[in-house]
Amino acid sequence: MNRKFEHRAEMTVRRKVGRAVHHYGLLREGDRVLVAVSGGKDSLVLLDILRKIPDWAPIRYELVPFTLDQGFPGFDAAEVRRQVARLGLELVVERAPVSEILACKAPRVSTPCSLCSRLRRGAIYQAAQRLDCHRIALGHHADDLIETLLLNLFFTGELKSMPPLLKAEDGRNVVIRPLCFLFEQEVAAYFEQLGLRAVNAGCPDRQILLRRRRWIKDLLQEWEKINPRVRHSLLAALQHVRADFLLDPRLLSGTACRPGPR
Ligand code: SF4
C-alpha cells in the first residue's frame, strides 16, 4: 500500500470515529473501557483507533482489551494476545462455556447464533463489571448496522438496527460502537496498513451466519448498480428518522392519529 493511500485510510478512520465519539458522546474523561476483541479485523481496528484518540483529542481514558474464549476448537486466544501485544497493550482473556451450551441445545435450536450472541453478551457484561469498566466498546461498523436493519425489516418485521450508544438492560453497562460511521471497506483498508493478522473465531457454525449475511450483501451489491450510494443513503436514513411518517401509534404526535378504544 503506498503512503498516500495509507494516509487517506487513516484520515478517514480518524475523521469518522472522531465524529461518532463527539456526536454521540461515546467516551468521557476518566472512563475505563472494555474493548471486546474477537481477533477479527474490525475489533483490532477498533482497539488501535481507541488507543490513538488521546494523541489528537483532549480526552484521557483507560482501555481494557478483552477476549471471550467461547471454547470453539479452532480458536487461538494466544494468537489474539500476540496481535494485541503488537499494539502495545495487554489482553485479558476469559473462558466461557458458550460452545458447550450450544452443543447441548443443538437439537432444539435451528440457528445457534441468537443464543450464542445472548450468552456472549451476558459473559461480556459480567466481565465488564468484574474488571470495573464503565463502557463496553464493540467493533460493529456501518455495513453491520445497515445489514442488521435490512435483516430486521425482512425477517422480524421490526424497524431497528444497532445503536451507537446503548444503556444495557441491566442498567449498569453502556455499550458503544465507535466504528458506526465507517464502512467495511474503510475498516479493511486501515487494517491492511496496521500489519496485523486477523484471528479466526473458530466457530463451526460460522457458515450459517455468513449465508444469511451473504444474501443481504448480494442484495446491496445489486442495489448499488442502480444507486452507487445506496449504503450511504441507508446509513443516513438511520440518522434521519421521520417517526410521524411511520405507522407506530406510540410515535405519532397527532392526537387524531392515535388509535381509539375498540
Ligand atoms: S457464527 Fe458462531 S460465534 Fe458467531 S454468533 Fe453464530 S454461533 Fe456464535
Write up what this structure looks like.
This protein has 262 residues and is an alpha/beta fold. It has a single domain, classed as HUPs (Rossmann fold), CATH 3.40.50.620. Helix content is 50%, strand content 10%. It is built from nine helices and six strands; from the N terminus they run αβαβαβααβαββααα. The chain has a six-stranded mixed β-sheet with strand order 3-2-1-4-6-5, sandwiched between helices. α2 links the parallel β1 and β2. α1 packs across α7, α2 packs across α7 and α6 packs across α9. The radius of gyration is 20 Å and the shape is globular. The relative contact order is 0.16. The mean pLDDT is 91. Bound molecules: iron/sulfur cluster.
Identify the quaternary structure here.
single chain
Uncertain spans, ≥5 residues at pLDDT below 50?
none
Instruction: Kindly report how far apart the N and C termini lie.
Output: 65 Å
Q: Please give the largest β-sheet.
A: 6 strands, mixed
Per CATH, the class reads: Alpha Beta
**Total helical elements:** 9
Mean pLDDT: 91
Based on Cα principal axes, name the global outline: globular
Tell me the helix content. Answer: 40-55%
Structural class: alpha/beta
CATH architectural group: 3-Layer(aba) Sandwich
In terms of DSSP E residues, the strand content is 5-15%
